[in-house]
Prior knowledge:
The longest helix has 32 residues, at 201-232. The chain is built from 20 helices and 13 strands. The chain is elongated and about 75 Å long. By secondary structure, it is an alpha/beta fold. It has a six-stranded parallel sheet with strand order 3-2-1-4-5-6, sandwiched between helices. It has three domains: 2-198, NAD(P)-binding Rossmann-like Domain (Rossmann fold, 3-Layer(aba) Sandwich); 208-291, N-(1-d-carboxylethyl)-l-norvaline Dehydrogenase, domain 2 (Orthogonal Bundle); 298-455, Rossmann fold. Helix 10 runs parallel beside helix 13 (287-309) and helix 13 (287-309) packs across helix 14 (337-347). It binds 1,4-dihydronicotinamide adenine dinucleotide and uridine-5'-diphosphate-glucuronic acid. Uridine-5'-diphosphate-glucuronic acid (UGA) binds next to helix 10. It holds the Pfam family UDPG_MGDP_dh. Belongs to the UDP-glucose/GDP-mannose dehydrogenase family.
Amino acid sequence: MRISVIGTGYLGATHAACLAEMGFEVIGMDTDPAKVAALAEGRLPFHEPALPELLRKHVQSGRLRFTTSMAETAAFANVHFLAVGTPQASEDGTADVSQIDGALRALLAHVDQDALVIGKSTVPVGTARRLASMAKKLARPGTTVELAWNPEFLREGYAVKDTLAPDRLVFGTDSGTGLPILRNVYATALAAGTPLVETDFETAELVKVAANAFLATKISFINAFAEITEVAGGDITTLADAIGMDERIGRRFLNAGVGFGGGCLPKDIRALQARTRELGLGNTMDFLASVDALNLRRRDKVVELVELALTGSGARPQVAILGASFKPESDDVRDSPALDVAARLHERGFAVSVFDPIARHSAAQRRPELDYPETIEGAVAGADAVVLLTEWRQFRELVPGDLDALVRRRNIIDGRNVLDAAQWLDGGWNFWQLGRKPADGCAAVPAAAAGLDALAVRA
Ligand SMILES: NC(=O)C1=CN([C@@H]2O[C@H](COP(=O)(O)OP(=O)(O)OC[C@H]3O[C@@H](n4cnc5c(N)ncnc54)[C@H](O)[C@@H]3O)[C@@H](O)[C@H]2O)C=CC1
Ligand SMILES: O=C(O)[C@H]1O[C@H](OP(=O)(O)OP(=O)(O)OC[C@H]2O[C@@H](n3ccc(=O)[nH]c3=O)[C@H](O)[C@@H]2O)[C@H](O)[C@@H](O)[C@@H]1O
């Protein structure tokens, strides 16, 4: 079977390479010529473990090719995956589906054989049915173009593993059309026992956003308790361990810290609220506004802690931020809590240097106003405070002796709760974590976070 993947960003490039690994002949199509040129040479334009090897292998074998031409794409295959972006369109959170509409329209203009189009992007409920009728209307006379929806649940950093061995597959169709082809495409995973849910368009679309909304809620739930333990005392990690021992709750996604970011969870919970309002359901998803607000408040909290730690530290205190990507094993800085906090500290007059082992380039493109030393030593040299915001392994393994001789002042804020408090306090550092009352000697931040501006350092 020959398959196309339209949109070769994080999702599409992974999907295309994994389809080739499953044995199909694949063409990846994107409107971005630079991206296509890199991929066609077997170079991955972003960081994702195990994907460069897969890409190179299949570009070299000839099983995987890339193009900017929709005509070539339509002629090459009769099964087409849509994996274009669905970013946040406006302040109210509505999803921008113009890439998906545009891609389908462009494809239909060239399709002259019966075809199945399989949507993979994350979309507002109702999109698949709308696109199916658009396909019926715009298909050339004599050709039938059917639509199916097959949402994707991969995590960045584990994209290859999640694609080749997913937790489940969801096929959304209209009365089963397209199911035999979908089962064929995923034959390897299905034979290995991957659970399969075959359902209608709407359920398939909603499963995806429900999963992301649940994950976001789980993170903000534990971070809400972090706000309590910061004031009342208690240990948020022990609390998470204890509730997570209940199998109905589970320990995963209960890591308190600076919260969630990335290209998906934040925009997906906003789009779901906007779509729910469009459906006339008023406040059904209002709790997600609290999930979002609580998540963003964690970033405020880190800014506050830095200001507090450095009150009276002179004209332009120096802050070293460890981490720029939204999570480890990724160079994705879309809505990254780490980069957001770094930029806000810079705006408030701190001298900010950011070190990330992989995301240096993407961070510098997004936030060129910040400094990006090439080494961790370069970033922390002369720092008045060190702030850990992305839990890369090399940061998790830091011990006071690694930094003692480099910094100007021994202040460290662990925004991901991965360092051993006792070790840092014993080492003579002022140490703060989210979800823990500050130790004696490390000043507490007032519970009411009012007057942030009043606390701001004036350059
Ligand atoms: N990044 C991830 O881990 C996951 C993403 N998703 C969803 O997948 C979709 C894509 O996400 P990403 O890959 O992260 O976005 P991305 O922004 O990295 O990639 C989108 C790609 O589509 C291309 N594109 C835009 N318009 C096009 C058109 N008309 N024809 C061909 N190509 C076009 C862009 O040039 C870009 O390369 C989104 O809906 C996202 O929510 C779902 C699961 C995981
Ligand atoms: O729709 C998507 O694009 C994807 O979004 C998330 O995947 P991803 O964004 O790659 O990353 P996650 O591992 O979910 O982490 C998201 C954010 O939550 C944060 N997080 C995660 C777990 C936790 O316990 N605490 C926490 O703050 C991470 O640091 C990160 O900023 C989902 O996990 C995927 O299933 C989904 O396919």
